[in-house]
Specification:
This protein has four helices and five strands. With about 160 residues, it is of the alpha+beta class. It has a five-stranded antiparallel sheet with strand order 2-3-1-4-5. A hairpin with a 2-residue loop joins strand 2 (about 85-90) and strand 3. Helix 2 runs antiparallel to helix 4 (about 110-130). The chain starts with about 25 loop residues before the first strand and ends with a strand.
Length: about 160
């Protein structure tokens, strides 16, 4: 790419015009993790966190965040998402979040998937911080995307 798409000819920020782009099926998957102490992980797994069901709340928060992406990130297009999923894997030392977003449209859903993942992670932190304030959120990244002019992409291993 030889020019930034969110800047006009004079260098001012602009929203990209997607009106002439073809509608295609677009899917993006993002992942991230939160490292925590054994007591925090056990409390989340066993449903013993005083604030309630951490993963159920984080799932709803992630889905809601994806739907509000255009309100959170400047120049993002408001999208009519077809689907958003947020899944969790309990791992040694923490929780991995994987979020996906999809639609049939003129622009990709990478930011929606990454926003869903990020907010789900922040929600886990918020709900379990009374047990472990030293939790660390990290590794939020795009794993894959499909559709659109640039085609399919998968993150290197």
């Amino acid at each position: 790419m030889n020019q930034l798409t969110h800047l006009d000819e004079s260098g001012k920020a602009r929203m990209v015009d997607i009106g002439g782009k073809a509608e295609t099926r677009r899917v993006a998957v993002a992942s991230g993790s939160i490292a925590m102490s054994a007591p925090a992980l056990t409390a989340i797994r066993d449903g013993d966190v005083p604030k309630g069901d951490v993963l159920a709340t984080a799932r709803i928060a992630g889905i809601m965040a994806a739907k509000k992406c255009a309100e959170l990130i400047p120049l993002c297009h408001p999208l009519a998402l077809d689907s958003v999923t947020v899944d969790f894997a309990l791992e040694d030392g923490g929780v991995r979040v994987t979020a996906s977003a999809s639609l049939s449209g003129r622009t990709g859903v990478e930011m929606e998937a990454m926003t869903a993942c990020s907010i789900a992670l922040l929600t886990i932190y918020d709900m379990a911080k009374a047990i472990d304030k030293a939790m660390v959120i990290g590794e939020v990244r795009l794993l894959s995307k499909s559709g659109g002019k640039s085609g399919d992409w998968t993150a290197p291993a």
